[in-house]
Amino acid sequence: MALIGFLGIFLAGICFAVLRLLSKSDDGFPRKWPFVGMLPALLLNLSHFHDWATGVVERSHGNFFFRFPWFSGMDMLVTADPANVHYIMSANFGNFPKGPEFKRVFDILGDGIFNSDSNLWSTQRRVAQVFMKDQRFHRFLSSTTRDKAENGLLRVLDELSQRGVTVDLQDLFHRFTFDSACRFVTGFDPGSLSVEFPEVPISKAMGDAEEVIFYRHLYPKWFGTLQRLLGIGVEEKLRRAWEDVDQILGNYIAMKRVELREGTGKVKGDENGADLLTFVYGNDKFLRDTILNFMSAGIETTGSTLTWFFWALSMNPSVEMRIREEIRSVIPKEEQNLRVFNISEHMHKMVYLHGAICESLRLYPPVPFLHKCPANPDVLPSGHKVDPGAKIVVHAYAMGRMKSIWGEDCLEFRPERWISERGGIRHQPSYKFIAFGDGPRTCLGKDVAFTQIKMVTAIVIHNYEVHVVEHHPVRPSNSVILNMKHGLKVKLARRRL
Question: Which of 186, 328, 353, 393 is spaced 20 to 30 Å from 341 by Cα?
Fold first, then answer.
């Protein structure tokens, strides 16, 4: 047995050495080999993919053509060039749809707004715009977020701080955003945010699906088809996740149909018909796709943003101190002794908090890369020629770390870069700051996201000291959502108000 173990370690070492030998050329770029292309370099750097890709793109002045194995049909142009981003996302938007390859990779999303093009996309977007401009929804959003913060998040944080135990803040924030998004979208609260930490099957299923979607960018279509036929690998993981999602969302739709038919089941304190599922009409497939797309946007991206924001504050305590000072200067004195204050009335005055959130989104965009495909031959502003079917990846994570875009201090966390000389919020063009997209596909939920994030961050900072556990490893997971691979383990201490 010892000999077998030794041989296993020896062979693993040989494989690692070979990969290192094959991966890097003398100029620092991934080496291109016959048949296998740049795959050795990718495999060797997969554990820190986003930072590795950022270095490659920066050394290539914002554009790098990645070569996959011969005949895989997966070669892609990775760009972090603002001129290219503006051209693709806005100036020549019509020639760069999501395309059939995007829909294949993200097939679990069905025909929802993130997966559709042309007329179907326009219809989905109109539905979303009408819903999100409805005043009933905005009242519902504010009351639900505040209620979930006061009676959900703070109660759990209180219990954990009194016990003095370590907690995964990423898990807590995802539970908060999961419950909130379920109420916004379906009208039902699953109650996942509690000290019992109940299992959340749909949240796990969505996380598994996002991980598989990431890896789908790295292997050819035939390989995925083979896995599905054999019932193995990540494709089998996606199949199980898909089944769970369909079952749970099907139950929500059935419950809502009963509720609307019988006029029962309204959640206490909610505006009548303020949730998406009450507002939208259609068959079960349309409702399933619409719900899943909105939940994906409302759960994963906001949870990711909150997690990285508190990590950034832990590394920059002076920023947290300034946010606390701003809260004290903005919130009326009679409200400052309250655990939850009506931040929505004062949100526009919290300029420094807004800048800190933008700075976190710049460095840690919840969607680290975007996938595009030209419909017709084109030439990008960078001079790169792209043919129909070519894969273009806009690397949002890399864009936030480019000296050519943000200056020599691009890796520093400086909320001041978002504040004008007059003390107002400084606008940055969306093709430079692409956390919410650019052009016609700019995220409709931007204001909703900022409302939730500001409310939660201000309430948590006002009530607690958050201390990240010493030596806790922090790095992005391999997923289409920028979550932390190991979560964010913290200890909490209640502040004296």
Answer: 186
